[in-house]
Amino acid sequence: MRPFRAAVIGTGFIGPVHVEGLRRAGVQVAALIGSTPEKTRTACQRSGIAPDHESLQSVLDDPTIHAVHLTTPNQLHYPQVQAVLRSGKHVLCEKPLAVDSRQSAHLVELAQVAGVAAGVAYNIRFYPLCHEARARVHQGLIGQVFHVTGSYVQDWLLKASDFNWRVLAEEGGALRAVADIGTHWLDLVQFITGQKIVSVCADLQTVHPQRHRPVGGSQTFSGAAAAGAPAPSQPTAIQTEDAGAVLLQLANGARGVLWVSQTTAGRKNCLRFEIAGAEQTLAWNSESPNELWIGNRDTANQSLIRDPSLLQDSAAQIAAYPGGHNEGFPDTFKQLFCQFYQYIEVGDLSAAAPFPTFAEGHQEILLCEAILQSHHQRGWVTVGGKGVGRRA
Ligand SMILES: NC(=O)c1ccc[n+]([C@@H]2O[C@H](COP(=O)([O-])OP(=O)(O)OC[C@H]3O[C@@H](n4cnc5c(N)ncnc54)[C@H](O)[C@@H]3O)[C@@H](O)[C@H]2O)c1
Q1: What is the pLDDT of residue 390?
Q2: Is the same domain home to 175 and 308?
Q3: Which of 174, 234, 343, 370 has the maximal Cβ count within 10 Å?
Q4: pTM higher than 0.90, yes or no?
């Protein structure tokens, strides 16, 4: 691959993960930009990056930088993606692509006109066993998909004293737990089954209608580490949901259900799916990601341990280490970035992208809007449609 140079915007939880993943994918990180010059300097120093650029604009003005990774809070994605597209650079945006479907539809159009690679970081697809599950479903090994169930649960917002910009609708968007983590699950099951979710029925729950907002801000995923001496805080009303259930219908008629929560003690970051077909069931858990459970009716069940020599080609290609040498969360970013930059290297940007596209990012936002509408209207909603179809 030619020596690509990338910039990462955002120095919080996930920005440094992009820096590490880019380096492991063989891409030079030319700039890392925070919200203030001081944050930029500190983050660059920590990551060994020359602080030659101090703003997104200076990155966009640098013709030696090929691509920009946006890892800033959600409401900045829309203006920042537009700026990157105007500059003619490739863009990889953290999820969600934008905060509403008007914005995300506009970004889909702009990206098409710009003629650059434009991706959204739904990284969970890039666990090799998630690619394996997709290959098995597409080869018909599990038979017709009947139902898709699972959950994505965490505990870092369990207490009313836990706080982050995400809990505020004006900063993270009106839908929170479902949009923040549930969309990873929704993206993943659509990727694996190849079926779009066409209608939803949701029931959301705000466990803490009031949280204590620390004066001076808080860190993402600070969890128990934040439980020292109580910091000064102010009571803040919360409109976004901590948890929720979503019933689903897929385009092929399969049914499903998703449970999402950021208030489940002990579950740190746990995504589980179970895809039941006419012949077999596939089940996977992101907290033990090197193992895929294969359920059979008439023979013993199986456990497939991630080992490139045992996987389908598409999964083996994104498994870098031999079996037993466990791969995890940081590897998914490396593999996503390898796919993104190899696609640019090949140069046919009209070819199907091997990473989540802006169109798929837009679809996730349509799903979120349908879920929120369904919750408010207490009934089924067609994804992307205006009407609400209430069922008996
Ligand atoms: N794919 C994943 O697994 C994953 C995981 C976590 C977060 N995310 C997404 O990444 C984004 C960031 O989340 P996070 O958890 O890292 O949040 P965070 O609050 O930890 O970090 C956000 C960073 O953006 C910086 N920032 C704010 N305004 C800026 C500006 N104008 N210019 C440059 N930097 C600015 C902040 O200083 C902060 O360092 C969110 O959209 C989130 O949904 C994705």
Answers
A1: 37
A2: yes
A3: 370
A4: yes
